[in-house]
Amino acid sequence: MSWTDIFCHPVWAFSTALLYFVVRLQRRGRWNPSECTVKLTGKTAIVTGANTGIGKFIALDFARRGARVILACRSEARGTAALREIREKSGNSEVYLHLVDLSSMDSIRTFANRILEEEKALHILVNNAGVSGLPKQISKDGLDMTFATNHLGPFLLTNLLLDLLKSSAPSRIVTLSSVNHVKGEVDFSHFHGENLTYRLDKVYNNTKLHNVICTNELARRLKGTDVTANSVHPGVVLTEVMRHYPFLIQFIFNLIGFFFFKSPEEGAVSSIYCAVAEETDGITGKYFDSDCSIVLPSPLARDSALAVKDFEISERVTSKL
Ligand SMILES: NC(=O)c1ccc[n+]([C@@H]2O[C@H](COP(=O)([O-])OP(=O)(O)OC[C@H]3O[C@@H](n4cnc5c(N)ncnc54)[C@H](OP(=O)(O)O)[C@@H]3O)[C@@H](O)[C@H]2O)c1
């Protein structure tokens, strides 16, 4: 029997089609942003990494709801293209681009100072920007580049904007983690690129675990302030997230993803749910799955003593930079 016989066989074709439709149905999730009538007029939102992928669709949704939206991006060219597209599609001219490189603590401080000087309020902060598959690279602050971008940078940014979020309450912080956090490990020497295995998504998984741990601890510290902090898994989403992986892995990801993964628009849903839905009003310190349900994160992410330690060490490391 040849390969053509196998792949053209009706049983093969039928089961592939069935699998495709089951996956499509499951991708839809339980909450539909277009049926949510919440308006964000008079509200200000920041979305990091809003020039592509999931972040662009989160920002577009906020703009369509009438928010003043700040796209926090590192590339002027890519950010400007997204700014034009979001303004055009939403009809909202209150969308702005501010440059920030989340792997640089200096750049984050400059960005945060500008926000504190120019903005009267901040109601939504979405820590979306992220990177995966980078080889060993140490930032000019002496930090592992993936840790700086995915955990320590967003951690510093959130803390610098915290007073503004508090004075604008009710306000919400949403941090994009990943289901891969369950494979993550905590070792604080990782922050400086020590004892890390740079293979596929190993470093990424560790950073995504810190996202959930520190978001939970932040939520605990914010009790009574009417500022909520939650982390989300967006699903497996066909974006540029694999851009630093070997070509073959990118090719396989894109090929399978074309049929079975979420689109960036679908991947934005769980974050939008956390950031705007009435159903998530007042909910804090939770981890949301890609279908918008609250699920338990990994045991390490639920260890409150570890969370206190992680938060304090992350604070100590970033405050010096
Ligand atoms: N896609 C998935 O399957 C998946 C699954 C689980 C979790 N997530 C999480 O979802 C979030 C969004 O990912 P995505 O899939 O939309 O990825 P993406 O398409 O690669 O977009 C990532 C965004 O982050 C920005 N970014 C990266 N490094 C930055 C830096 N140093 N400073 C500022 N911005 C930076 C990128 O900017 P440039 O375009 O300039 O590089 C881009 O805008 C990430 O946190 C990711 O971990 C994704």
UniProtKB/TrEMBL annotation:
<dbReference type="GO" id="GO:0016491">
    <property type="term" value="F:oxidoreductase activity"/>
</dbReference>
<protein>
    <submittedName>
        <fullName>Zgc:64106</fullName>
    </submittedName>
</protein>
<dbReference type="Pfam" id="PF00106">
    <property type="entry name" value="adh_short"/>
</dbReference>
<comment type="similarity">
    <text>Belongs to the short-chain dehydrogenases/reductases (SDR) family.</text>
</comment>
<dbReference type="InterPro" id="IPR036291">
    <property type="entry name" value="NAD(P)-bd_dom_sf"/>
</dbReference>
<keyword id="KW-0560">Oxidoreductase</keyword>
<dbReference type="InterPro" id="IPR002347">
    <property type="entry name" value="SDR_fam"/>
</dbReference>
